[in-house]
Amino acid sequence: MVRSDRSLCHDEPSSVGTAFPDRPTSMPVPNALNFTLVVFDVAAAILLLGLASWLEAWWAVSGVGVVFSYLMLTNYALLHEATHHNLNSQPARNYALGVATGVFFLAPFSMIRVTHQGHHQRNRTDAEMFDLYYSGDSFFLKCCQWYGTLAGLFWPCIPVCATLFAACPPTIGLQLFSGPPFGNANVKDITPRDLRRIRLELLLTLVVFTVLLWLFQWRWLNLLVLYGCFSVNWSTRQYVGHAFSKRDIVEGAWNLRHNWLMSKVLLHGEWDLTHHRHPEVSWYYLPTVASPDEPRLGYVKQYWRQWLGPRLATEPTPQLPGLNLSRRMTPEEGG
Questions:
Q1: How many domains does the chain have?
Q2: For residue 241, which of 59, 178, 182, 272 is within the disulfide window of CB 3.0 to 4.6 Å?
């Protein structure tokens, strides 16, 4: 049953009575636009990786790396849309486009999909309390985790851990990568079927880059510089939409103010609170769904206050709902 569009007025949160809310009929997924963006993003990524391989001067390679890092922010925004079935209204096409963006993110789409849906289920709980600490926690370890993320070390953990997780027996992989201090509790949601897809998608990524490296004689060291630039740009802004927000699974996020160009690059990713309230709504409509009267923090100010360090937790952890928001793929989506 399709929800009434009235529930989107004044940014009212989606009902928690359904595991995956229906998309408003007046806000269809922009299939053609999303497909065009994916094709452009992948083609531009290949072009920039190739250009960097032809360059000799480190400053020139780094300059291409900066451009590449912003291009890949859009790549991740498209990947994120696919995790919510918002990249294409047809499940099989959504999956295919999600896998394509995941290849150049260097991480399997199926793992990103499951862990991101887990993020929506566990947001601001102890499992995702990166910006806060309890009095009994190791403040040193918390600072290492927090400043490591801000310094750009978050992204490399994803392809490395995904590869190790896929290579391990399932039971061992879950034990190693779903617990503290550096594990992701959302990994617990990965099923054997997901694991098979993860392994196939990792193999596809390996094949694609092996072919591109051989075909165009790319220099792998130059590619590392580009992905290093992206790692810093992506990692350092990953928690900006949640840092120091209230400890609430849905309301624990911010709508931020950003300049129009970065808003386009991020596909309106600064509207994170609205996204958590309405994960079924495409990026294209987020600014129109939010209430114009709701206060918004400045993106830059919110970013820099993260560097003041983790804060002592003063609110209790929110209670997990009795729902599983992790949507399993249909057979048409590739499994």
A1: 1
A2: 272
What's the residue count for the chain? 335
Per-residue pLDDT of the chain (335 residues; tens, 9 = 90+): 333 343 454 444 443 333 456 888 899 999 999 999 999 999 999 999 999 999 999 999 999 999 999 999 999 999 999 999 999 999 999 999 999 999 999 999 999 999 999 999 999 999 899 999 999 999 999 999 999 999 999 999 999 999 998 998 776 666 677 666 556 788 888 899 999 999 999 999 999 999 999 999 999 999 999 999 999 999 999 999 999 999 999 999 999 999 999 999 999 999 999 999 999 999 999 999 988 888 899 999 999 999 999 999 999 999 876 544 333 344 344 44
Structural domain boundaries, residue 101: 29-313
**Residues with Cβ < 8 Å from 106, sequence gap 6 or more?**
158, 159, 205, 227
Query: Has residue 324 been placed in a domain?
Result: no
154 occurs within a structural domain: yes
Tell me the C-alpha distance between 131 and 215, whole Å. Answer: 44
CA-CA distance, 48 to 54, in Å (whole number)?
10
Q: Which helix (H) or strand (E) holds 133?
A: strand 132-133
Query: Taking a C-beta distance cutoff of 8 angstroms, is the pair 296, 57 a contact?
Result: no
Given a contact cutoff of 8 angstroms between Cβ atoms, the answer to whether 257 and 146 are in contact is: no
Tokens 């269809």: give the residue: 28
Domain assignment of residue 56, yes or no: yes
Chain center to CA of 14: 21
Tell me if 131 sits within 8 A of 311, measured CB to CB. Answer: yes
Handedness of CA 210, 212, 213, 217 (dihedral sign): positive
Closest CA to 274 of 257, 287, 261, 293: 287
